[in-house]
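User: Quick sanity check before I run a bigger batch. Here is a single chain. Can you write out its predicted 3D structure?
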Amino acid sequence: MELASKVLAGDVQAAARLISWLEDESPDALAEMDNIYPHIGQAYIVGVTGAPGVGKSTLTDNLIDFFRKKNKTIGVIAIDPTSALTGGALLGDRVRMQRHSADPAVFIRSLATRGWVGGLARAAIGAVHVMDAMGKDIILVETVGSGQIEIDIVKAADTTLVVLTPGYGDEIQTMKAGILEAADILVVNKADTEGADRLKADLESMLTLKAARPEEWQSPVILAEAINDKGTEELAGTILSHRDFLVESGGMAGRKRERARLELLEAVEGFVRDFIYRLDGGDYLEKLVDEFLQGKTNPQRAAREITGRLADTLDK
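Assistant: Done. Predicted structure follows.
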């Protein structure tokens, strides 16, 4: 409770410690989060995703600058590849966004994926809650570039930006379904390079094929030059327009509800998975694996046996 109280008061060091506990899956983190959850739900969460090299970090940096000039407090979660040596985030907070690192109204935290696919670190949702409870107005979640569009960001964000650059060619076709499903706003970065206007036109053409009712949000395509800070104002304005649309249409409540449902289900899945690994010191799972390989059981039968053990344990 002591750490949670400091987080609620905006203490950066306490927030950083709690996020570290979440990454390490410390039991102390769960106890502190009990006092964090009643204070979440006020921040606006923006996801920034896309393939490597499209300029996500520079774009995020520009958005921080824009919103700070509007007196908004900002949280940033930068999800990085895992270091093979330390297990921590490969890229540090200040390497990405040095000019904002000393701003007390900006809290930037890198998280390591630690082998999790989909671009989101396991502790990312918890880190969002911590920054929300601190009182941050806007939380930017930038996913690790893994060479594919990371659709998982939709689970964490109110507004999702998908960043692309010219030169994708036929790869656009392979990503079409993911782009159209995930993106609230499409950003064509490096708009000063050849092919940017064509890419924008192709994306807009693809979006016209997306089945959407008139009352639904129509995903716009924004041109930007992040390195030159061009297009930032239009992009930020579009983000705020999407927020207003969600509030007025009732979509915001729906997204928050779906996010809560997913988080609850993931917590249950994690609990059951941990229970299975701990059964008989780990021997029980290995026994079932051996029986499956020997044809003595099958996944469905083994699952029923495991749930039976779980039910017996809970009864006790």
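Residues 261-315 form one domain.

User: Great, the batch can go ahead then.
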